[in-house]
Write the structure tokens for this entry.
Amino acid sequence: MKRILIADVPQMDARYHAALCGWEVAFVRTMSQARRAITERYDLVVIGVYFDDSQMFDLVRDIRADPKALAGDEFIDLELLGDDAAGNSALRAAAGRLLKEQQ
């Protein structure tokens, strides 16, 4: 099963659960939790802009600095997708495409 790491605020959990059901999803809330988590293998990392007081780019730098980590080049702006069934479907489709490309 594909593993997805979500680094975001708890208010977004319901949306991620709705859009990413069927994949193994783990949540982190702080940079220290995220740094520990990225030592493990994840197939996709999702980082919200409000993660740990807007430390999104710090986490992106940490991931890119680790040669064993994902080579993240893709960004999905949830604001553009809408917080509804159609937006969640679009998020699920984007995640599925990214996970499939890794095979």
